Amino acid sequence: MTPDSRRLLPSATPVSLIDPEGRAVENSPYPAPDDATLLRSLGKLITARRLNDQAYALVRQGRLAVYPSSHGQEACQVAAAQVLDAQDWLFPTYRDTVAAVGKGVDPVEALSLLKGDWHCGYDPYEHRVAPHATPLATQLPHAVGVAHAARLRGEPTVVMAMCGDGGTSEGDFHEALNFAAVFQAPVVFFVQNNEYAISVPLARQTAAPSLAHKGIGYGVPGERVDGNDMAALLAVLGTAVDRARNGEGPQLIEAHTYRMQAHTNADDATRYRDDADVAAWVHRDPITRLRTYLTARGVLTDQAGAAFTAEAEKVATHLRDGLNRDIEPNPEDLFAYVYASPTPQLREQSAVIADELSREGAR
Amino acid sequence: MTTVAHEKLSMAQALNRALRDAMTDDPSVVLFGEDIGALGGVFRITDGLTAAFGESRCFDTPLAESGIVGMAVGMAMNGMRPVVEMQFDAFAYPAFEQIISHVAKMRNRTRGRVGLPMVIRVPYAGGIGGVEHHCDSSEAYYAHTPGLQVVAPATPSDAYTLLRAAIESPDPVVFLEPKKLYWSKEEVEFPSRAAGIGTAVIRREGTDATLIAYGPSVPVALEAAAVAAQEGRSLQVVDLRSIVPFDDATVCAAVRSTGRAVVITESSGFAGVSAEIVARVTERCFTSLAAPVRRVTGMDIPYPPPKLEHFQLPGVDRVLDAVDDLSWEQ
After folding, report:
1. What is the pLDDT of residues A76-85, one digit of tens each?
2. Nearest residue of chain B to residue A183 (CA atoms)
3. Per-residue pLDDT tens over the stretch A239-255
């Protein structure tokens, strides 16, 4: 292996800065973020967990059709948004609502898709967050295109392109990595490996040593990071974003994490995994770990902790209120956005529905 | 005052000229695809454009159609007007998911906030003796998908104006280029008269029956009309130009004026665009019709090998046979 190809290799084990017991890891190749940054992250993590659990509860109350929760993966979600600037783009999957919210999207608008009011409930340009992608990995070539356009204009934009372990088996994952590498597009491909694609375990997705190794074939440097270690995620993703911004091209980051809940509320995880496996990951919880670390360092005060909880409650209340508010959908909207201006045929069809409604009203 | 000039151009040259003029007028127009740079495309449609505008405006990509279309989506999201080339009709299928799930739907799913001004150019259909997977008539797949515009020029002039219109459109366009017409020539007028997407045109006036065609079938219709004229029958020819949006008004006015119609497409008939045209005409013009609307289409078979392709292509005789069958005895 040449020195040049060696630079593509990820670490032998996932990068970790804080161990599951909340202790600093010695001799890490990445410097730990400062305490103030980590304290801010803890606040975001607490809100993220609250959002996940609130959304999950709202499904049971019938306010959301379904919710793919990132419970347990909140450190990945928070870090993905926290390392980006306002000018940067985020391409989330359906499980990355919390990352989209981290980039500034209103959580009520972010959940419009799952509430059923419309497909994408937010303006993607407002916070530079692409619509949630539900077809797997299809958003990754878009991320490359956004990055390439920015690069052609000389803008310093970086694009964070997210997918899961299952998504790495899709053709678009490979095409996107290859295109990004060939064009040296400033994209950070961020894979949350939560061990399951609905019910199918990682072993059925890949025989590669790790998902981060998949970059080697494309000339994309890979890195592995403990996905439940907030400090390591900020360090590794932050470094990747800096490199991309500095013109060093794309990178592939794999975070090792775990989906603590079922795929969605419609799923039954007991059919394919043991409770004991899930229980083992409780010990690795990202929030407990960071809280222990910051408490031991004397950074986390009772007052700050209370403020975080209050903020999380505020966001949860906002989400609840927003999702409990019924918006009367306007059927004219079905025809308004298919094209910039409706075709004659769409105008006819819109009139058919308007006529049906007027007759219903007359009854 | 604008000076009007005429130049004799092949359809391939007219398309090249349209790309060149669009790139000159709008710096956000970028071209990419397979072999479109130094080679100028396998049909030379992008000939000389990398040399004229540089690598950043006209470039080769890795050989992956989903990646090409997906990257175009991202570039269109971010201020560019990408024009991508699929090398052949059947080679566009790896991009199908991107086209159906994203290109067609982005404006709608974002409530009009993200439009995708992009063009997917597809050299399409047969008649050139192409081998397997090089001659598909794929228009029905695209036309069936709301959110896409689908156009197919039949003349060099329309190739120029429709491609300019497609590039300027705020919405994505699947631009079907009939391969067998790439080398057909005519005088093209500059500056061009505006032919908007969504407007059909009467190619030949006639009073006895209406032939409805688009793209590669238009010359067949015109030839059939010329032969019929010698036999004393006056056939009108409508060139759709745009499959989506569909110009019901022009098509129906034409059919009502003659009371008889034959639809001609190279693509297979079953569940194809020809079936849609017959349905639309029948629904709207029934009381004006003196005979059922007939179709002359490709057979419902995979595209034949070169030595058998003439059995698949609608020819003048089949068209005239269909015309003969339009209940003239009444």
Report:
1. 999 999 999 9
2. B61
3. 999 999 999 999 999 99
Residue of B nearest to A347 (CA): B245
Closest-CA residue of B relative to A344 is B245
- What is the rounded end-to-end Cα distance, in angstroms, of chain B? 55
Low-confidence ranges of chain B (pLDDT < 70): 1-2, 193-194, 330
Domain of A68 in residue numbering reads as 3-329
Whether B70 is in a domain gets the answer yes
Number of domains within chain B? 2
Smallest Cβ distance to A135: which of B69, B97, B149?
B97
A138, A145, A171: residue with CB nearest B72: A145
Residues B31 and B172 in one domain: yes
Q: Kindly list the residues from chain B whose CB atom is less than 8 angstroms away from the CB atom of residue A332.
A: none
Best mutation target, A155, A334, A338, to test chain B (most B CBs within 10 A) = A338
User: How large a percentage of chain A has pLDDT more than 90?
Assistant: 90
**CB nearest to B62's CB, from A142, A182, A336:** A182
Structural domain boundaries, residue B225 = 201-324
Strands (E), A51-180: 89-91, 159-164
Produce one character per residue of A7-44: b if its CB has 16 or more CB atoms within 10 Å, e if not.
Answer: ebbbbeebbbbbbbebeebeebebebbeeeebbebbbb
List all residues 6 or more positions away from A169 whose beta carbon is below 8 Å from its beta carbon.
A197, A205, A206
Do A228 and A360 fall into the same domain? no
Q: For residue A152, which residues of chain B lie inside 8 Å, CB to CB?
A: 30, 56, 80
Residue reference for tokens 């937010």: A122
Residues A305 and A361 in one domain: no
Chain B residues near residue A93 by CB distance under 8 angstroms: none
A116 three-class SS: coil
